Amino acid sequence: MSSANQPVQGMSDIAAPEVHLWQRMEQLARDVMVRYGFEELRTPVVEFEAVFTRSLGETTDVVQKEMYVFEKGGRRLCLRPEGTAGVMRYAAGLGAAETDGARWYYIGPMFRSERPQAGRKRQFHQCGVECLEPPSPLVDAEILALQVDLLRAWGLGDCEVRLNTRGESGGQAQVAEGLRAALAPRAAELCEDCRRRMAANVLRVLDCKNETCRAIVAELPPSTDFMSEASRAYLQQVAEHLDALGVSYRLDPLLVRGLDYYEHTVWEIASTALGAQNAVAGGGRYRMRLGGRELVGTGFAIGLERVVGVLQALGRENALQTPPPKLVWLVGLGDEALRQNLALMQQLRAAGIACRMASGGSMKSQMRAANKSGAAWALIRGDDELAQGVAALKDMVAGTQETLPVDQLATVLAARIAGPAS
């Protein structure tokens, strides 16, 4: 097959039947978000590069290695690599009264130029939320509980929550210095990237996948040892609220998340179904400055490709999908029957009945098309049926056929569609 007919590497077409699973997931997500008081926000796919370099941090892998950046009209633009910064850019343009306590969610495609692998695409889709409420362990616990609730709605209630803290923003320099001092005796053993990260962003060393680096990191004191008592108390309160909400979690002192804007609570939710790359979702509390305003909130993002992959690995995708509507295929024998079937089809659709028809051909070819479509019924009319004001209705599963007045078709079909599945 010609490469011109293939999507770009790392990007995928999503067609039936899998697209029905995606639609159901999106519908369930919207249902859950509304219960928690969130409104949908749709931001542009293309943003100014500075929206992300200023909010995510110029030393993050996303900014340094993964963004699709291009110039147009003398301006540096990029395809959004994540959802939070665009939402915060929108919030920064509003007044304080409009953003105080705002709750937004988004569902849409993101883009990162990285090596494609299981559950990780160059174009991927995220479902996320941003809750712009002041730092509060109670709010952080509620938003984490929302994410767990959403995963349960999708059939992934058995995932593991890993919980940690980045500490209050004013104390993060002290944490960084403590980690550098602890790593210094073994700095020469670290990979090249981590030796660079020690100076630029030492927390990224904790997240390195290199086995040697992981072994060194495992012997470090937890980052909370370098934090203030207030930061440790904040994490303890979050944990107590999660206990009260019945949300299970595991404290993980090596969890840092990859973006610079996080402070206080961070978490990841994992599944073992995808092997080593098992993170399904994550989130946390953040603080960022955009457009001259400082914005604080709590949010999360869920990679929908990851969720689909886990559902498929566990054999749960079919339980989430809803069957397509039962289809009626109109068969017309002759030009006049085809013309009148076109009008009848629109009448049936107006009554909520899914219909299709072929544009012509023999009865045999039209019935073959009906079979191929998976239609539940074929509605057949020729000159005799037109003269009598009736139609032959054939059950495509049972093979039975009956004649009905045209003015009764919508009522009869609606009743059968609503009845028990055949």
* Termini separation: 40 Å
Principal-axes shape call: elongated
Sheet with most strands: 8 strands, mixed
Q: What is the count of structural domains?
A: 2
Describe the model.
It contains 16 helices and 16 strands. The chain has helices at 18-35, 49-56, 61-66, 84-92, 96-99, 137-153, 172-183, 192-200, 211-218, 229-245, 304-313, 317-320, 335-350, 363-373, 383-388, 409-418, and strands at residues 39-40, 46-48, 69-72, 75-79, 103-111, 123-131, 160-165, 250-251, 262-270, 279-290, 293-303, 327-332, 354-357, 377-381, 390-395, 401-405. The chain is elongated, with a radius of gyration of 28 Å. Helix content is 39%, strand content 23%. It folds into 2 domains: 3-168 and 227-320, BirA Bifunctional Protein, domain 2; 327-416, Rossmann fold. Helix 6 crosses helix 10. The relative contact order is 0.12. The protein has 422 residues and is of the alpha+beta class. The strands form 3 sheets. Strands 1-5-6-11-10-9-7-8 form an 8-stranded mixed β-sheet.
